[in-house]
């Protein structure tokens, strides 16, 4: 075969030096399916789905919809938020863990990734094997709130009430059994020497509605989900679980200040994708999500809700999940917490 003929064949089939550079074209010509993943420079070329593994109306939902709107503007493609609550976030988390790694299914993950791995039943997914981090988005204190009609104004008064009526004071767990709130409340019960009546919910939205309606006495919830109701007087904030006060509600003391030495719980939320997602695509999504989080308008909005921006590297997300699994395993064993 002459050099001219070989050159024409290379041009026709996208070959250069024996390497296929037009795989999509060649696969179409041969009847095979085209490549499923966009090149990172062309991503996204169609709508993107962002799964939130809790019910609508909570802080994670607010965060997801805020970032989704900004990403839609940046990408010129819709970013559709889809709530998939259930099983302490395991259902939504697993949906992404088993999705195609093409960049079109994202997850707003968090503490539940580590806690799901510690459930006594066989997990629906393995967070370390099936998922990879994109970036942390925020960290968020947990906030203990009560309905105004309960008649307590301080954390100390709440503790006295629980001790006087053990097992009677109802307390909503927005993340359900096996959630960070569950673990934090079990530790709280141990520290104060009395039990609350814990009621699991699939998310902060429905839990908040029941507390506002007077059906439940108290709730431990991310501060961002409760800030507006506290400011309006619909809920009474007693204490935050972090060792520092929140800028959004600076008048609310920490549990350490209220008398529980060394008590500290902080939640995080961030963006995660299936483990099979190519590194170049992860980097593209990381770059754009971090840019959105650092936009002054976005940052101010989220900080006013009670979030603290905590953008990170993809590797930092994966390491946080590993570290949290080890930490929560020790806490569960020490406090004899039953996740189910």
Automatic annotation (TrEMBL):
Coiled coil: none annotated. Belongs to the UPF0065 (bug) family. Signal peptide: none annotated. InterPro entries: BUG, Bug_dom1, TAT_signal. This is Tripartite tricarboxylate transporter substrate binding protein.
């Amino acid at each position: 075969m002459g050099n001219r003929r070989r050159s024409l064949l290379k041009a026709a089939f996208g070959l250069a030096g024996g390497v296929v550079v037009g795989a999509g074209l060649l696969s179409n010509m041969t009847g095979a399916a085209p490549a499923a993943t966009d090149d990172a420079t062309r991503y996204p070329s169609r709508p993107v789905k962002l799964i939130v593994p809790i019910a609508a109306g909570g802080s994670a939902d607010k965060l997801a919809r805020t970032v989704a709107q900004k990403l839609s503007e940046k990408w010129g493609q819709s970013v559709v938020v889809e709530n998939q609550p259930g099983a302490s976030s395991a259902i939504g988390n697993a949906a992404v863990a088993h999705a195609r790694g093409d960049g079109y299914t994202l997850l707003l993950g968090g503490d539940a990734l580590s806690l799901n791995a510690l459930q006594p039943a066989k997990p629906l997914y393995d967070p370390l094997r099936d998922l990879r981090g994109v970036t942390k988005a925020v960290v968020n204190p947990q906030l203990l709130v009560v309905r105004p009609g309960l008649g307590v104004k301080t954390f100390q008064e709440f503790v006295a009430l629980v001790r006087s009526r053990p097992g009677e004071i109802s307390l909503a767990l927005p993340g359900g059994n096996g959630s960070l709130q569950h673990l934090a409340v079990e530790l709280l019960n141990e520290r104060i020497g009395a039990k609350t009546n814990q009621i699991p919910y699939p998310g902060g939205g429905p839990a908040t509605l029941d507390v506002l309606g007077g059906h439940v006495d108290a709730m431990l919830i991310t501060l961002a989900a409760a800030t507006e109701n506290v400011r309006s007087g619909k809920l009474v904030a007693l204490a935050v679980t972090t060792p520092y006060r929140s800028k959004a509600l600076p008048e609310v003391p920490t549990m350490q200040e209220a008398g529980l030495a060394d008590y500290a719980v902080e939640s995080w939320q961030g963006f995660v994708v299936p483990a099979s997602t190519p590194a170049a695509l992860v980097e593209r999504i990381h770059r754009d999500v971090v840019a959105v989080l650092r936009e002054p308008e976005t940052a101010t909005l989220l900080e006013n809700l009670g979030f603290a921006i905590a953008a990170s590297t993809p590797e930092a997300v994966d390491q946080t999940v590993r570290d949290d699994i080890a930490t929560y395993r020790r806490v569960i064993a020490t406090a004899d917490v039953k996740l189910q």
